[in-house]
């Protein structure tokens, strides 16, 4: 049986954030929304102490490679729709 692991990382800026508290409210909201909709693992992976930058990571495991890729692309699309952020870069990898 084949098992596929997918990871997407999304680099973003939060232009209206003026403190770590404001940033974390935005990030928590995004992570909670993605987790509840897609049942995936999610975290803030980089730029933890920067007020206006973040890198979010999302992981999916399945026996269907196409499902993994489509799920990660839908997650990226959902994140990009958030008007509080500007997406700088999206990376999707499936193994």
Give a short synopsis of this structure.
This protein has 95 residues and is α+β, with helices and mostly antiparallel strands. The protein is built from 2 helices and 4 strands.
What do these coordinates show?
The protein has 95 residues and is α+β, with helices and mostly antiparallel strands. The protein has a single domain (4-94), classed as TT1725-like (Alpha-Beta Plaits). Helices cover 37% and strands 37% of the residues. The protein contains two helices and four strands; from the N terminus they run βαββαβ. It has helices spanning 20-38, 65-80, and strands spanning 4-13, 41-46, 53-62, 86-94. A four-stranded antiparallel β-sheet has the order 2-3-1-4, with helices on one face. A hairpin with a 6-residue loop joins strand 2 and strand 3. The chain starts with a strand and ends with a strand. The model has no long low-confidence stretch (mean pLDDT 97).
């Amino acid at each position: 049986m084949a098992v596929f692991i997918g990871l997407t990382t999304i680099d973003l800026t939060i232009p209206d954030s003026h403190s770590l508290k404001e940033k974390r409210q935005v990030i928590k909201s995004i992570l909670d929304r993605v987790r509840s909709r897609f049942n995936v693992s999610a975290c803030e992976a980089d730029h933890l102490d920067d007020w206006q930058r973040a890198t979010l990571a999302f992981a999916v495991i399945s026996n269907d490679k196409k499902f993994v890729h489509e799920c990660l692309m839908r997650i990226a699309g959902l994140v990009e729709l958030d008007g509080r952020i500007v997406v700088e870069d999206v990376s999707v990898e499936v193994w």
